[in-house]
Amino acid sequence: MTTPILIILIGFLIFLGHYLAQLFDRTKIPDVVGLLLVGMLLGPIFHLIDPATFGRAGRVFSNLVLVFILFESGLEVRFEQLRSALRGTIGLTTLNFVVTTLVVSMLAQLFGGLDLLSALILGTILGGTSSAVVTTLVRKVHILEQTSTTLVMESALSDIFTLAIPIALISVYTGASFNIVTLLSQIISSLVVALLAGVGGGYLWSILLNHVPMLLKTRFSTPAFVFIVYGLVEMLNFSGPIAVLFFSITLANVTLLRPRRLRQYFPARHVELTAMEKDFFAEIVFLLRTFFFVYVGMSIVLDNGYLIALGLGMAAVLFLVRIPVVLATAGRKTPQLDMAIMSIMIPKGLGAAVLATLPVQRGIPNGAAIQTMTFAVIMGTTVFCTLLFFLVEKRRITGFYALFFGKGRPLQAPLLPPPAGSEIKTS
User: I need a labelling partner for 179 at 20 to 30 A (CA). Which of 114, 137, 300, 316 fits?
Assistant: First the structure.
């Protein structure tokens, strides 16, 4: 594809993204499905664009999407919500990862012909959720702030499991040593270091905002600092998404978290985006997520019909086993709508797609099968999630979820007026 045609295609995709977004607002038909379909038409179906030609640019692009979405989402989280959601988030993230790994591993062994270790690699790759999809959808439905925070944090925290454990299991095939103590220490250190880096970066940037007025006049300096935090944490082989999430949460709650003896150095009001900045960031996120989902569609591999069908079947089963996971970890007073939304928020993202290429690169015998099934599950969970979101939001399948979540729970969270609060302009 020549450069002029590629530029024309980019312009076409922007117009298409706006049209699908407006269609979603009017009809609640998920725009993600249309973007994925366009990507599949461009990539695996008509082979107009090969995602491999993007090289590392594709990985960088997906990380940019993640940084912007997590940063914008974290600024909406208040410390009270975080504190109430943290316990449920850890339980939901851990239990969902374990259940997903076991279910996928069992199905891969029974129907995919994979050995135990290969099946576990596949299961752990698919144990998390996609931050890009989750944070996009939870904003479009009226649920409790605690529920929204729990789902966003789950999508970020699950990266720790889905990065450390699959790579450790792959090392067994390549002859490297495997130690469960080392693995656990890596997981804990990744969480702690990323959290400290995010909180520390948030404190540092809030001090700079308070004492360097020039930073308040520029619109892109805060995202630039976020990029630096993310890049430094990733360079140290820890979780950049966790660092970004807690960086923005710290900025949003700086007045509550500042030490008494150092209060003079911190802003006296919460750091929030102004209306103009929210529009600016919303447009950037819109453009990035449009190309992100098209890129995911282009990256899907359609080379084995049976394994693709098996992957789609796995995706359907995962939505069913998610129901008892949510029941076991959600609070008793969580509304039925919130429980239903939590039950469908298991889309797999580009991180799983990148990890799925590692077994092939490392020469694992079942590497190609792992990659094909992973792409099928990514496609299946993303499409199923958005379609189920449409049906739940339209109250078309509330009766089904009421069978599991209806006893003693309110139907929906009460409508509350937006909280009044002062703002301090970010840059």
Answer: 114
Phi and psi, residue 35, nearest 5°: -65, -40
Query: pLDDT digits over 117-156, tens only?
Result: 899 999 999 999 988 788 878 888 888 888 998 998 898 8
Q: In the predicted model, is pLDDT for residue 166 greater than 80?
A: yes
Whether residue 424 is predicted with pLDDT greater than 50 in this model: the reply is no
* DSSP-based three-state secondary structure for 177: coil
Closest to 312 in 3D by CA, of 365, 360, 368, 382: 382
Q: CB 176: neighbour CB atoms within 10 A?
A: 10
How many other CB atoms sit within 10 Å of the CB of residue 393?
18
Amino acid residing at 78: R
For residue 19, what are the contacts with CB-CB under 8 A and spacing of at least 6? none
Per-residue model confidence (pLDDT) at position 232:
93
Most confident of 78-82, 98-102, 378-382: 98-102
Helix/strand/coil percent split, the chain, to 5: 75, 0, 25
Question: How many angstroms from the chain centroid is the CA of residue 39?
Answer: 19
For residue 70, the one-letter residue type is: L
Within 10 A of 28 (CB to CB), how many other CB atoms are there? 16
The one-character DSSP state at 76 is T
Instruction: Give just the sign of the alpha carbon dihedral 154, 26, 300, 321.
Output: positive
Q: Which residues pair with 271 in a beta bridge?
A: 424
Helices (H), 75-144: 79-112, 116-125, 131-138
State how far the Cα of 307 lies from the Cα of 379, in Å rounded to an integer. Answer: 13
pTM flag (> 0.85): no
